[in-house]
Structure formats: C-alpha cells, structure tokens
Amino acid sequence: MLLVLIVFFGAKSVHAQFAAYYCAKTGIYGFCVGSSDVEQCAYNYCVSYGGRSPRLVGSVVYEKGYAAIAIGYTANGGHAIGVAAGARTQLEADRLALQYCRKYGAVSPYIDARAFDL
Fold first, then answer.
1. C-alpha 63 chain-centroid distance
2. Longest Cα pair distance anywhere in the chain, in angstroms?
C-alpha cells in the first residue's frame, strides 16, 4: 500500500514558489523552485524521471523559505513521501518532512532533497 502526504502552505494562486509532484506507481517525484510556473515545471521533471501518473503533493504559493522532501518505504514495501515547504529554517523543513513521512508509514525515512527560495 502506498501512502502519500499532501502538504500545502500559503494562499491559493496561479503562481507558486515551490511545487512537488509524485507518482505512486513508480515512487518517483519531481520538484521545482522559483520558476514562473513551478507546478508545471515539477510535473515535467517527474515525468522526465519516469513518473507515469504524477499527482501534486506539495505547493507553496508566495511563501518563500526552506523546503525538504523525505522518502522511505513502508513495512510492507510500499513507497512513502513527506513534503514540507515554506519553513523558516532548513532544520524545520527537514524535521517536518521526516515527521510527515513517518506519520504516513515510512519505517526509516530520509531526506532526499532540499530547496530554498529567496
């Protein structure tokens, strides 16, 4: 069973500072920071890395700050992901991403990507 955490911070808008897409079928994700259309950029990265049916799992709109993506496997071998963005420090983003990934089933999650948008 695959567990995915969806975290959204900030107000809704057409433009965002950070976005991440995740494909549950392959366990592949893609993210983008600071682009004029980060959601499309993140989607494109996920597909280019092998994602077949990506879903938006994190988006921060007009909230600059630190981001982290944690990944891991569940006890039965499924994929899990935790995304935190818009944090005041990298330590906070890492802690939250790991916490979310564990909450949704990861046994030994680890930080796989970090980002900062000025």
1. 15
2. 39
Starting at the edge strand found earlier in the chain, the sheet holding 28-33 runs 7-10, 55-61, 18-23, 28-33
The bridge status of strand 3-4 relative to strand 79-87 is parallel
Query: CA 41, CA 88: separation in Å to the nearest integer?
Result: 24
Q: How many helices and strands in the chain, by DSSP H and E?
A: 2, 8
Enter the pTM of the model.
Answer: 0.82
Contact 34, 5 (CB under 8 A): no
Average of per-residue pLDDT across 70-87: 93
CA 97 to the chain's CA centroid: 8
Confidence at 6, pLDDT banded by 50, 70, 90: very low
Q: How far apart are CA 27 and CA 70, in angstroms?
A: 12
Coil vs helix vs strand at 63: coil
